[in-house]
User: What shape does this take?
Amino acid sequence: MLELIKAGGWLMLPLLLCSVIAMAIIAERFWTLQKKRIAPNGLVLQAWQWAKQGKLSKKQVQSLRDGSPLGRVLAAGLVNLGHDREIMKESIEDVGRHVVHELERYLNTLGTIASIAPLLGLLGTVIGMIKVFAVITTQGVGDAGVLAGGISEALITTATGLTVAIPSVMFYRYFRGRVDELVLTMEQEALKMVEVLHGEREHDTPGGPA
Assistant: This one.
């Protein structure tokens, strides 16, 4: 492995750095973007029960806010419970934008790595071929060892760039879809809470079928 890195030239260093960053982001996003951490079940039912029993205190709202991103969204609506439906929705949407931004954290970096890794590999290919032609110009084609070194540098950097880029693209698209799915879930739960607390679903059980 170390010999391959050396054979690939100095461009292997940024490619290896990109691979380490990409793996760290992928692991962190897998851990963070779990549904049970983002949108736990039963939060709307819990908020409805607190409001119905008249036990909705600042401490309970704060615990809801600190528990999960969905809890933050619901808490934004609960603090405006005394206002009309539109005010609650506006406050929920405002906090929701911040929550979505946090869910998308590091994804731009992962997308950038997916874009630049093959370009770095291509740059390594160009540099390797330049070395090959420089040797041919000065020494002819008699020194096969030097020619092979330039060609191997070109191939190694290209392969490394693609190896980093392909999984980065795959997981970037996967996490984008995952974020969209979680955002849709939070929107549905927040709307359900607003409608329940304002009596538009008084015959429905929160957390059950809409």
User: Anything to note?
Assistant: The chain is about 80% helix and 0% strand. Confidence is low (pLDDT under 50) at residues 200-205. The longest helix spans residues 144-197.
